[in-house]
Specification:
The protein has 151 residues and is α+β, with helices and mostly antiparallel strands. The chain contains three helices and six strands; from the N terminus they run ααβαβββββ. The chain has a six-stranded mixed beta sheet with strand order 1-6-5-4-3-2, with helices on one face. It is globular and about 30 Å long. About 16% of the residues have low confidence.
């Protein structure tokens, strides 16, 4: 494949730019104005939180309120608050952040917990990742992207 040595984040950016160009071209041909691009503040507001509600560690990230998570993720949050017991032996282990999708921290700062996916036989792709500073993150695509969980 021609793009095998290109970082995924760059490929995503290029794909998004291509999609935007295609949409602008299609809308322009129809004689309609394109809707303004969402800002970080509007994206946060659409997730059910005001910009002032977002803690410093979550600034610039997609966010989701805890009550907007799937029930299985809310159950895991409750278990984390209680200190367990967890369904999988890997729960509570160090998350290495090798994908660099979360802010850089020292090794051991982040820990991961499995969020059960109905219909999956294995652990599936959903996780809650916690930080030592009280941060909570949710991924449903096995660490490709994260949302800061606002509690």
């Amino acid at each position: 494949m021609i793009f095998r040595n290109v970082p995924r984040s760059l490929l995503r950016l290029l794909g998004a730019l291509f999609l935007c160009a295609a949409l602008v071209g299609a809308v322009g041909c129809a004689g309609q104005k394109a809707a303004p691009a969402p800002t970080a503040a509007s994206a946060t507001a659409s997730a059910g939180a005001r910009a002032t509600d977002v803690p410093g560690w979550a600034k610039g990230m997609a966010t989701v309120r805890a009550d907007g998570l799937p029930q299985q993720a809310r159950d895991v949050l409750a278990l984390i608050d209680k200190g367990g017991p967890y369904a999988y032996r890997q729960d509570g282990t160090v998350f290495g952040n090798f994908e660099k999708a979360l802010p850089k921290q020292k090794r051991g700062y982040y820990h991961e917990y499995t969020v059960r996916t109905p219909g999956e036989r294995d652990r599936g792709a959903r996780r809650i990742v916690t930080g030592e500073g009280g941060e909570f993150f949710y991924t449903d695509d096995h660490y490709e992207t994260f949302k800061a969980v606002l509690r």
